[in-house]
Amino acid sequence: ETSKYRSLAGFSSVLFVVLSLVKVFLSQSPEAACLSAEDISPSSNGPRDDDPDDLFAEATEEVSLDSPERQPILSDGPSPAITPVTPVMISPRVDVFDRSPDQDEDEEENRDTFDIQISVSDPEKVGDGMNAYMVYKVTTKTSLSIFSRDEVCVKRRFSDFLGLYSKLASKYMHMGYIVPPAPEKSIVGMTKVKVGKEDLSSVEFVEKRRSALERYLLRTVKHPALLKDPDVLQFLESSELPRAVSTQALSGAGILRMVNKAADAVNKMTIKMNESDAWFEEKQQQFENLDVQLRKLHASVESLVCHRKELSVNTASFAKSAAMLGNSEDHTALSRALSQLAEVEEKIDQLHQDQSYADFYLISELLGDYVRLITAVKGVFDQRMKAWAKWQDAQVMLQRKREAEAKLQYANKPDKLQQATDEIREWEGKVQQGERDFEQISKNIRREVGRFEKDRVKDFRVVIIKYLESLVHTQQQLIKYWEAFLPEAKAIA
Amino acid sequence: NSDKLILENTNIPCFQRKKYCLAVNVDLQTDATLQVDISDALSERDKVKFTVHTKSTLPNFKQNEFSVVRQHEEFIWLHDSFVENEEYAGYIIPPAPPKPDFDASREKLQKLGEGEGSMTKEEFTKMKQELEAEYLAIFKKTVAMHEVFLCRVAAHPVLRKDLNFHVFLEYNQDLSVRGKNKKEKLEDFFKNVVKSADGVLVAGVKDVDDFFEHEKTFLLEYHNRVKDSSAKSDRMIRSHKSAADDINRIASTLYTLGTQDSTDLCKFFLKVSELFEKTRKIEARVAADEDLKLADLLKYYLRESQAAKDLLYRRGRALVDYENANKALDKARAKNKDVLQAETTQQVCCQKFEKISESAKQELIDFKTRRVAAFRKNLVELAELELKHAKGNLQLLQSCLGVLKGDT
Question: Shortest CB distance from A311 goes to which of B236, B256, B391?
Answer without folding.
Answer: B236
